[in-house]
Structures are given as C-alpha cells and as structure tokens.
Amino acid sequence: MKSRNLAVGAVVTAATLALTGGVGAQVVVQPQAPAPVIVNPPAVNPPVVVNPAPPPAVTVQPAPVAPAAAQVVQAEDIEANDIRADTIYANKIKASQVVGTVHHTKDVELSGRGEVKVPSLVASTIYADTIKARTITANNIYVREIERR
Fold this sequence. Notes:
This protein is mostly beta strands. It is 13% helix and 44% strand.
C-alpha cells in the first residue's frame, strides 16, 4: 500500500511539474510486476504396512496329578511312555524326564510279580523293581537308583 501511494505521488508530482513547465522531459512510471506465486504440492505419504508380531510360544509343564481312582499297581518291571502317580516306590528308574520330589532310599521290598508294558500308566501308588519310561510324573518318588536315558 505504501509503494502504491509513493507511485501515485510521483505521478502527480511529475504531472504538476510537466504542466507548469518545471520539467522539460517526460516521466513514465512503470508499475512493478507482482511477485510470483509458487505452489508446492503436498508430499505423498508412502503406504503404511502393518506386520503383526508372531504369537508367543507357550510351553505347558504338567503338574503332578493324583489319579481319580485309588489304584495300586505292583509289578517286577514296568515299561511305559508316560507314568503318573501320587507316590512311586522303585529300586531302579530309567527315564528321560522325572518330575516330582525324589527321595533316595534303600531297597524296596516287593510282593508283585510279572511285567507291565503299556503306553501310559496312571495309578495312585506304584511299586516296582524297575521302571522304564520316557516321562515319570509323581508327587513323591522313593527310589534307590535313578538313571537318565
């Protein structure tokens, strides 16, 4: 606005001087060109890709469980993949995994005879000379000798 007033004032002054004969030359006032307008387009955002995290691994460790039926198993030798009991009495145990409280004892006297071969054995109490299993789970395990296989 100020530059426009100056430009108008200069034109009026030049016209007055020209009419009164104070200036012998002709004065031409040229307006200034407007400032250029620059438009920057908005930046294009890249697409958002969400990769969900894989679910956490869950490992379940079975707790010693007493069987529902009050069952007693007596045998000279027991062979199974999995054995679960409240209490186990044995002279020798060969197992990959033993879960429970292990008490070392002297010889266990047995009245049972024969062999038991099953995929899985669940009993309240087990008496055996030798137990061979992949997994043995019991609250209390009374054994003379234990061997990991």
